[in-house]
Design brief:
By secondary structure, the protein is α/β, with parallel strands linked by helices. The protein has 2 domains: 2-121 and 316-331, 2-Layer Sandwich (Nucleotidyltransferase, domain 5); 127-309, 2-Layer Sandwich (Nucleotidyltransferase, domain 5), CATH 3.30.420. Helix content is 44%, strand content 17%. It has 11 helices and 10 strands. The strands form 2 sheets. Strands 3-2-1-4-5 form a 5-stranded mixed β-sheet, with helices on both faces. Strands 8-7-6-9-10 form a 5-stranded mixed β-sheet, sandwiched between helices. Helix 8 (241-272) runs parallel beside helix 9. The chain is globular and about 65 Å long. The structure holds 5'-O-[(R)-(carboxyoxy)(hydroxy)phosphoryl]adenosine and zinc ion (ZN). The site of 5'-O-[(R)-(carboxyoxy)(hydroxy)phosphoryl]adenosine has 19 residues, from helix 5 and helix 6.
Amino acid sequence: MIALGIESSCDETAVALVGSDRRILAHSVLSQTTDHQPYGGVVPEIAARSHLTHLAPLIESTLKQANLSLDQVGLVAATAGPGLIGGLIVGLTMAKAIALGKNKPFIAVNHLEAHALTVRLTDNVSFPYLLLLVSGGHCQLILVTAVGKYTCLATTLDDALGEAFDKVAKMLGLGFPGGPAVEKAAMKSHIRLHKNQPVHHFNLPRPMVGRVELNFSFSGLKTAVYQQASALAPAGSHLPESVIEDLASAFQQAAIDCVIDRVKRALLLLGYRNIRPTALVAAGGVAANQALRQALSGLAYHHDVNFIVPPVRLCTDNAAMIAWAGLELYETGRRDDMLVVPRPRWPLDPNFSLNYADATDI
Ligand code: KG4
Ligand code: ZN
C-alpha cells in the first residue's frame, strides 16, 4: 500500500509518498525559513498562509515525482498535532478532502509519534527502544514499546533543546534557524583549537547533571550564555567573531553534556527495571547535530546498545515520517473519521506527569 503523507504543523510544508515496503517514492519539503527570518522566529499566521499557498501544488508535484496519481494512493495521513493551529487546519483539511473525494482511508497523525516511528521506516528497528526526541518544541526521553505505546521517562522543565539552540543563536547574532548556525560556529572554534590557534574558554553550567530526577532543563544554561556574552560586549558593542564561535562551542558542549548525562541515567533506569532496549534512537531536528550524534554514539557503545539515528533529512520535519506513521497505525486497525480536529497540544504519553519522572528507584 502507498500512503500520502502531509506535514504542516510548523514552518515546513511537506508532502511524501511512502510504500508499506519502506520505500520512499517521493519526498518534498518546502521550508519557510526566509519568510520568518526577518522576525527571528516562526510567525504562526505567516506559516498558515504559506501552507495554504503551497500545499496543493506541492502535492501535485510530489505525485508527479513518483509518477503516481491520487487513485494509486491507498491511504491519506496528515499531522493533526501538536503544532500551530493554522497550519494544522490547512494540512488536515486538505487530507480530509482528498480522502473524502477519493474514498480513501484517512489517518490523523501525532507529529511526535511520527518522529518516534521514523527509525522503523529507515532501519526497521524492533520494540522496545529508548527514544531521545529533541526538536524545537520538544525534549523528551520515551520508551517506545509498540505502535501507540509510549512511556515518557523525562521531559524538559523549561526550554526544549532546539529552542535553547535557537535562542542562543539569536543572542549571538547567528540568525535563524539557530541550531545549524550554532553547530557551524562551534565547528569553526573546534578547527581553531585543533590548529593550536587561540580559543576563549567559557565556564558554563550543566543544569540537572547528576540529579536523580530524569528531566532536562536548559534555561539556566541559556541565561549563563547571555550573561557571559553581555559581560564581554557591553550594550551597543559587538562581540568579535572568534568569541561568538567559542561561546557557541562552549554552549553546544554544555548542552550535549546535559543530554548525555540524562540519557545515561535513563539507560541505567531501564537496566534496573530489567528492560533491555533494542536500540538508543535519536529523532527530531536537533538529532541532525553531528556533535550530539557522536556523543550519543559513544554513550551507546559503552552501554552495549545499538545507536540508531535517521538521516538528517528525516530527522528534521518531513512528511515521509507522517506517511509511515499512517501506515503503521493503519496496520494496527486505526481509521479516523471526518470529525477529527487539530490538537495544538497532544502529548504522546497522557499518563506522564513530572512526579513520574522521579527515577528514585535507582
Ligand atoms: O523537528 P524539527 O525540524 O521541528 C520541530 O518539530 O521543532 O526541529 C527543529 C529544531 C530547531 O530548533 C532547530 O534549530 C534544531 O531543530 N536543529 C538543530 C540542528 N538542525 C536543526 N539544532 C542543533 N544542531 C543542528 N544541526
Ligand atoms: Zn518535529
